[in-house]
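Q: Sequence in, structure out?
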Amino acid sequence: MKGILTVNSDIRDVSLAGRGQQRIAWAARHMPVLGQIASEFAAEASPAAVMDLSFADQALSAHYLLHDGRNLPPAVYDVPPEIDERVATLKLRALGIRLDALSDAQHAYQASWRFGTA
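A: Exactly. Output:
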């Protein structure tokens, strides 16, 4: 068939690969800790260590659709950020990595246009 590329026995359509690469690039820029996790797992070459993140996203997304998504019109949706953040937080906790929380002063600095390097 035209437009179908057989990459692997269980992968037939790679038309979304570009979008996936964009997401990976965005995550690497905005969430460097995820890049560190990905590098660690890539070095270990353990698909199960990486797939648990995907499975967790899928399971929580299915739960979200079942309970909160009944009124969504048919379309392709991104995983809600709350689900991605929950999965990432749980994975980091499982790896023994703790992220610092911003202080009130740091939040104020981050949200203000009055502060800066000038």
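The chain is about 60% helix and 0% strand.
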